[in-house]
Every structure is written in structure tokens, then in C-alpha cells.
């Protein structure tokens, strides 16, 4: 097994990069040793690997202190598969080095079962007088061997590389000629910096047929499509308020430096070409994008976007609490928010406004059913377990809390559990949220105590006897106050001793080792690229960036 990586030196324009293969399924200490050779860092230098989206830093022996809200891991004790199999990129740098020492963005292009030598350099793009990569490094392998697929595509890759370099050169020239603080990019020129296979993937998502086209023709066709008002409307219709505000601020900021924590609300724009990002960490909204947005951003569109996003929040609660529910039950949930009391027919019409790929539920015979539960009619098994129980209708505050955070942050039980993790176990806020998110998913669906303990062990959280006793009591309390799928949103404490409409004639036992009868398996991830704003393929109902994409 090996990874194919694209290693790009930060701050270079045109970009300086190497496409490489490295061994997979090793420790990060082994990975760092290979990366040091590939980027030609001095032997024995201190290193740091940072997965920004996961808020994780990795160093030799876990030395030093992590920056705020990051978890520090020991490179020799952490397997690459734990992060590199799920993440898209990371930063590789010399730890403690001066500012002139280059840092590298490492994009994880694929993991393969082929036989390519590793580490090896497949190709590189750099200037003749590059101060850091002066000659081919000694990598400890016989040759840079391409896979069969890469060999077959070699001529196409070379053409794509030349096109990308030419596009970068055009961007650099435009930068020099630009007045004020703008670089005046176009969507097409930005898309030309993509690999051809990535462009084809985007074109496929948009329903475009590009067979036989070269890279420039594909980029032009995709650019023309994403600049259509109806296409931009569909993209922004499912954007949340934070994302829209960030985009509108980006228009006003012209060409601006993007802090790493800003990418959470901007990266989806980058995927569509609505925001052009540069290798020096600056970004800019193309003028042609701003013009189309100004055209579609009417008061009517803003009202519709607000309604769609609130309905999507309600559908997330369907996934958490019911899996399947009458459309009128969801309508009752929807209309309780001030300013959203529309008629039932308008509610159904609003549902059909949501783009299909952004909607997690299917409307069938007046029932809203989680799409992932339609596989093998899983939802019917869940309905049988739920019996004739009444549907719990969550409050507006509950819906907003679950949708934003993925678990009930305002629940006193979860707050006590979170405080224990912070005060007793000394975890960061980010890790605390990850743990509580996992605990909620386990408790509310198909949870087992053993799965929770395994998750904690993976995060390096170890209990002594006294801490374990406290934790067990707290998690029992949290479980018994968790809104569960089996009970259609009611908690075990609310169910205990209840009569119809809650009772089903079967006794309920609070959490032993297994909390809830088997509910729903994970939905297999689709083969298509998953964008941050897409529904998470696990079937949770949350956006990917707020679910599996953040952990």
C-alpha cells in the first residue's frame, strides 16, 4: 500500500511542487522521515505535522506544547491510517524553525494497493534556480516508478501540468498589472489550476458532458455553468448564514489574507470557483462572480434561503429523533419558529425547492424518510421498534443546537460530562466536543459502552479508578437524558413509568452495555467527491464539515 501525495511549497507563485509516493500504514515518525527526504529538510531536524481540520499536531515524541484547541500526538505512536485515510491534506514544517524556512502543504491524492516504489518522486515543477530543491534527493529506493495508470496517462498529465503552469503564470502577470489590492482573477483561469480529473469530477457533479475535451475547454465549460444565475442560486440556497456572511465580507475585502480558521466558512466557495485562492494564502472573489451574486441576491431569494435552511435544520432532527415521520409532524416542528408559519401546501412546495443532493429526506406517501434508511427498508424495522409512540416535537432552541453542534450542548447532563472531560481529564475544547458528539450518536442510536471507551482510548484519554467511576455515573445520567431514536425523541427518563402514548407494553431498562436496539447502519460513502456543504454520507443528517469531516 502507498499514498500518492502532492507536496506544494507554501507562498510560491507559480506553485513549486512535487508529486510523490510514500509508504502507507506506517507511523507518522516513518512518514516524517520520508517527507524530510522528499522536501530536502536537513537530516535530524525537528518536524511538525498539522491536520488543521482535525485540530491535531504531531511531533516526534509529542514534544512541546500544542497551540490553542489542538491535540498533540506522539509521531511514533500514531498510525498514518488514523488520519491520512480520512483527511484531504496536512501541513509539514520544521518545528521551531525561523520564518524563512519553507513550509509545505501536503495533499493526499489517493491511497493505492499498487507496487510503486516509495518514497519516490513522480514529477516536480520548480524553477531552474530553486534555492531548496537543487537536485534529486537520495530517497533510498532504486527508481521513481509510476503506476500503470499513471504511465498510461503520462502525456495527458504533462499537458495538464503545462496548462496549470501557464495558468499560474497568467495569474502572476495579472497580479503585477492589477491596480489597488485586486489581482482580477477569472473563474476559468482559477479552474485551469485544477488537475484534469478534478475538473471532470466537478463537471460530472454539474451534469456536464466533457468527453474528448482538453483541460482548457473543460475549464471554460465549467466556468460558464457555475456563473449561470440558476446554478449559483442552487449553491447559495443551501448555504447557511455564516457562509453567506463570510462570502459577502470576502467581496468587500477584495484580495485578502485568509486565516486558517476562516476556511470553515469559505472552502465550499473555493470548490465551485466562486472564491479564488492563491498559494500565498490570499484569496479573492472574482468580479464576475460578485456581479452574478448581486443579480440573484434579492429580498425574495434571501427569504427563500432562510426558509430552506430552517427546513433543513428540521430534517436533521428527523434523522436524529425519528428516521421516518409524517410530513405534518415535521410541518408542526417547522412552523413553531417565529416568522415561519406558512401553510402546509407551501411547506411541501418548499421541500421540493431543496436541491436533491442537499436534501437528506425523501417524501413518500406523506412521510419524510431519511434517505439512508430507505436502503433495504431499514426505516420499517425502526418503525416496528418504535411501536405506536407519539412523536416528540423539539423546541426551536433544541433544533438549532443539534443542527449546529451535533449534540445537545444545552443539556445539563452533557454539560456536566463536558466539564468533567475539561477539568478532570484535561482535554481541549475541541476534543471535548468530539467526544460528546460521539457519545450522543452512540446513546441515541446503536450505542455500546465499549465503543465509547475505544473512542476515548484512540484519543489518548485514560482513566484511573476514581475517574472511571465518576465517568460511568455521568455517562449513565447523560444516556438516560438523551433523546433517542427508539423513543421518537423522548428520553429514557421521560419514558420511565409512562402510560400511553409512550408505553409499548415492554419494560425499559436504562443503559447496561448496550443502550439502544440496533437501528441503522452507516450509509456507504458515495464514490463522488464530498464537499464540505454536502450532507454527510454517514446518514447523520448534518453537513459533512460538521460531522465526519471534522473528526
UniProtKB/TrEMBL annotation:
Return the protein name: SEC-C domain-containing protein
Q: Which residue range or ranges hold the Plasmid pRiA4b Orf3-like domain? A: 2-86
The record's section on Gene3D superfamilies has:
3.10.450.50, MM3350-like (3.10.290.30)
Determine the domain of life of the protein's source.
Bacteria
Which species is this UniProt entry from? Blautia massiliensis
Which InterPro entries does this one have? MM3350-like_sf, Plasmid_pRiA4b_Orf3-like, SEC_C_motif
Amino acid at each position: 500500500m502507498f499514498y500518492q501525495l502532492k507536496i506544494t511549497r507554501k507562498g510560491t507563485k507559480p506553485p513549486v511542487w512535487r508529486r510523490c509516493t510514500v509508504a502507507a500504514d506506517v507511523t507518522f515518525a516513518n512518514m516524517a522521515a520520508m517527507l524530510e527526504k522528499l522536501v530536502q529538510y536537513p537530516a535530524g531536524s525537528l518536524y511538525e505535522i498539522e491536520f488543521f481540520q482535525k485540530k491535531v499536531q504531531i511531533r516526534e515524541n509529542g514534544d512541546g506544547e500544542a497551540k490553542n484547541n489542538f491535540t498533540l500526538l506522539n509521531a511514533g505512536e500514531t498510525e498514518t491510517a488514523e488520519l491520512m485515510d480520512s483527511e484531504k491534506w496536512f501541513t509539514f514544517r520544521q518545528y521551531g524553525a525561523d520564518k524563512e524556512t519553507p513550509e509545505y502543504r501536503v495533499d493526499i491524492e489517493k491511497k493505492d494497493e499498487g507496487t510503486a516504489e516509495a518514497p519516490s518522486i513522480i514529477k516536480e515543477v520548480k524553477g531552474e534556480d530553486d534555492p531548496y530543491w537543487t537536485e534529486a534527493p537520495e530517497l533510498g529506493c532504486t527508481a521513481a516508478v509510476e503506476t500503470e495508470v499513471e504511465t498510461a496517462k503520462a502525456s495527458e498529465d504533462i499537458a495538464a501540468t503545462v496548462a496549470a503552469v501557464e495558468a499560474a503564470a497568467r495569474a502572476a502577470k495579472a497580479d503585477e498589472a492589477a491596480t489597488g489590492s485586486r489581482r482580477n482573477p477569472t473563474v476559468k483561469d482559477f479552474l485551469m489550476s485544477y488537475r484534469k480529473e478534478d475538473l471532470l469530477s466537478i463537471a460530472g457533479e454539474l451534469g456536464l458532458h466533457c468527453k474528448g475535451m482538453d483541460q482548457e475547454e473543460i475549464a471554460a465549460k465549467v466556468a460558464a455553468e457555475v456563473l449561470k444565475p440558476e446554478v449559483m442560486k442552487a449553491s447559495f440556497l443551501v448555504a447557511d448564514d455564516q457562509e453567506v456572511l463570510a462570502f459577502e465580507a470576502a467581496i468587500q475585502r477584495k484580495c485578502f489574507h485568509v486565516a486558517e480558521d476562516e476556511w470553515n466558512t469559505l472552502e465550499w466557495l473555493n470548490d465551485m470557483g466562486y472564491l479564488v485562492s492563491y498559494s500565498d494564502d490570499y484569496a479573492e472573489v472574482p468580479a464576475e462572480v460578485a456581479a452574478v451574486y448581486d443579480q440573484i441576491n434579492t429580498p425574495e431569494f434571501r427569504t427563500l434561503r432562510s426558509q430552506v435552511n430552517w427546513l433543513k435544520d428540521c430534517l436533521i432532527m428527523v434523522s436524529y429523533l425519528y428516521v421516518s415521520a409524517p410530513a405534518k409532524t415535521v410541518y408542526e416542528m417547522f412552523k413553531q419558529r417565529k416568522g415561519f408559519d406558512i401553510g402546509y401546501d407551501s411547506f411541501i412546495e418548499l421541500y421540493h425547492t431543496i436541491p436533491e443532493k442537499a436534501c437528506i429526506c425523501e417524501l413518500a406517501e406523506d412521510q419524510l424518510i431519511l434517505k439512508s434508511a430507505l436502503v433495504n427498508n431499514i426505516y420499517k424495522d425502526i418503525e416496528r421498534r418504535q411501536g405506536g409512540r407519539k412523536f416528540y416535537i423539539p423546541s426551536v432552541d433544541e433544533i438549532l443546537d443539534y443542527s449546529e453542534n451535533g449534540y445537545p450542548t444545552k443539556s445539563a447532563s452533557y454539560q456536566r460530562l463536558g466539564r468533567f472531560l475539561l477539568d478532570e481529564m484535561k482535554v481541549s475544547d475541541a476534543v471535548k466536543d468530539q467526544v460528546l458528539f460521539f457519545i450522543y450518536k452512540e446513546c441515541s442510536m446503536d450505542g455500546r459502552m465499549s465503543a465509547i471507551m475505544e473512542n476515548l482510548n484512540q484519543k489518548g484519554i485514560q482513566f484511573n479508578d476514581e475517574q472511571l467511576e465518576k465517568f460511568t455515573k455521568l455517562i449513565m445520567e447523560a444516556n438516560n437524558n438523551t433523546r433517542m431514536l427508539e423513543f421518537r425523541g423522548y428520553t429514557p427518563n421521560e419514558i420511565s413509568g409512562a402510560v400511553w402514548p409512550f408505553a409499548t407494553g415492554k419494560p425499559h431498562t436504562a443503559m447496561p452495555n448496550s443502550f439502544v436496539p440496533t437501528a441503522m447502519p452507516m450509509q456507504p460513502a458515495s464514490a463522488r467527491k464530498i464537499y464540505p456543504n454536502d450532507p454527510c454520507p454517514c446518514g447523520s443528517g448534518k453537513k459533512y464539515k460538521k460531522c465526519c469531516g471534522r473528526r
